[in-house]
Amino acid sequence: MDLATIAFLADYNKTVNEQMDALIANLTEEQWTAKFGGYFDSIRSLCDHLCVCDFNWLKRFSLLRPFEYIRDDFFARELRYGMHTFESKEEYFALRAALDGYFRRFAAEVREDDLGRSLKYKDSHDDEHNQEFGLVVLHVFNHQTHHRGMISLYLEELKVENDYSNIMDII
């Protein structure tokens, strides 16, 4: 993992989330909440999961050292797994855009010497971890990609044409 890759992944995720959200904006309420067979059983629940995870990872990153972005009032609240982080698609879009902005700020603040350091944190089950920071950052961006793939599949089930995740289109 290197600084250029982190910056690229932050930009990529912002761009792809915007493309995905443009499709989500056109969904009816029934499509937004339609139940499918996955653990996260709707597009809405997947978006909610991603927002909670991204918010909490951005907070965990600050355990390495005090990043500037974490001082914003945005991070004064708690978002926990299982709680709804938004009530409407419009609230989701605002939260997603804010999170993507914070990821870009985070990427700009990461230093080369951060990447090989150990990040000690507790996960949502209160289990303790001690992992290489650069690899944790890669995991977080990969997590977003994984769940956007699930959303893509749900969109296909709804007969909504989509092709928003091609990383080669971003380069």
Explain what this protein looks like in three dimensions.
- The chain is mainly alpha-helical and 171 residues long.
- The protein has one domain: Four Helix Bundle (Hemerythrin (Met), subunit A) (Up-down Bundle).
- The protein has helices at 3-24, 29-33, 43-61, 89-109, 133-157, and strands at residues 118-122, 128-132.
- The protein has a two-stranded antiparallel sheet with strand order 1-2.
- It is globular, with a radius of gyration of 16 Å.
Chain-wise SSE layout:
Blueprint: H1 3-24, H2 29-33, H3 43-61, H4 89-109, E1 118-122, E2 128-132, H5 133-157
Antiparallel strand pairs: 1-2
Contiguous helical run count: 5
The major β-sheet equals: 2 strands, antiparallel
H/E topology pattern: HHHHEEH
What is the share of helical residues?
Answer: 40-55%
What order do the strands of the largest sheet run in, or round the barrel if closed? 1-2
CA-atom Rg in angstroms: 16 Å
- Classified in CATH, the superfamily is dinb family like domain
Features:
single chain; 171 residues; mainly alpha; Four Helix Bundle (Hemerythrin (Met), subunit A); two-stranded antiparallel sheet; 2 strands; globular
